[in-house]
Amino acid sequence: MTMQSLPDFHIVIPARYASQRFPQKLMADLGGKPVLQWVYELALKAGAQSVTVATDHEVIEQAALAFGASVVMTRDDHENGTERLAEVAAKKGWKGDEIVVNVQGDEPFLPVNLIHSSVIALNQDKEAEMATVACVIDQVEDFFNPNVVKVVCDEKQRALYFSRAPMPWDRDGFASNTEKTGFLPVDFPALRHIGLYVYRASLLAKYADLPMSPLERWEKLEQLRFLHQGIKVQVALADGLPTHGVDTPEDLEKLRYQLSLDVN
């Protein structure tokens, strides 16, 4: 599908100034400009109707305005980026059927095609209220890693469940692989969740009224709140795992090194 035939959509970049693991990471220099500016520029390339930086901090606001971004100041009591998106959607007056993409402010090298594929997936599934992305897991070690979130889907490519636990379970195969190493069978339906979220504005409007589910409380996965309420989540498939974002100073150094190789 060409950019001309993409459905209309908006991008919101939730941008927190504070971060427990890496304070002020969005303002950190990466190749001569802040991490947040890289994210904003990739969002522009996606061809959205609008790209908005949503923040509650003046430092982020002034930096974003300096590189030409549209900024919406939000409340400072939001628990997560989805709540921040919901406030922006309400302030913008977006209609319920409009599509809103949450692009994390610490993902400077997020592939634009992932944004497009998730937007298309949601647009084509009229019963789904949100969409996300997943890619195939091929290594057994990743499959058993609780930091790698897994998703299983139904025949319509809608999420049945997200978990940190290994799923689905190969009853016979895993019984013989006690070391939990090597590669999974090529036809084994193991999918790794990639945390890109796309919503219909109508879902964002009611998000604040959705209570935390017991599943979300135990797994520490916000997307389970939606499944618990019976909300259909469409899952677009990616060819592979995108470049890791900036969670720690070490992540930033890796991206700086990658950039230096690209320049040279």
Tell me about this structure.
With 264 residues, this protein is an alpha/beta fold. 33% of the residues lie in helices and 21% in strands. The chain has ten helices and eleven strands. The protein has helices at 35-45, 58-66, 81-92, 112-124, 140-143, 173-176, 201-207, 214-219, 224-228, 249-263, and strands at residues 9-15, 29-30, 33-34, 50-55, 70-73, 99-102, 130-136, 150-153, 159-163, 191-200, 233-237. The strands form two sheets. Strands 1, 4, 5, 6, 7, 8, 9, 10 and 11 form a nine-stranded mixed β-sheet that branches. Strands 2-3 form a two-stranded antiparallel sheet. Helix 3 (81-92) crosses helix 7.
Number of helices: 10
Element order, helices and strands?
Answer: EEEHEHEHEHEHEEHEHHHEH
- DSSP strand content: 15-25%
Shape: globular
Helix and strand content put the structural class at: alpha/beta
* C-alpha Rg (nearest Å): 19 Å
Helix content: 25-40%
Give the biggest sheet: 9 strands, mixed
Low-confidence stretches: none
Number of strands: 11
Please report the distance between the alpha carbons of the first and last residues.
Answer: 33 Å
Average pLDDT score = 93
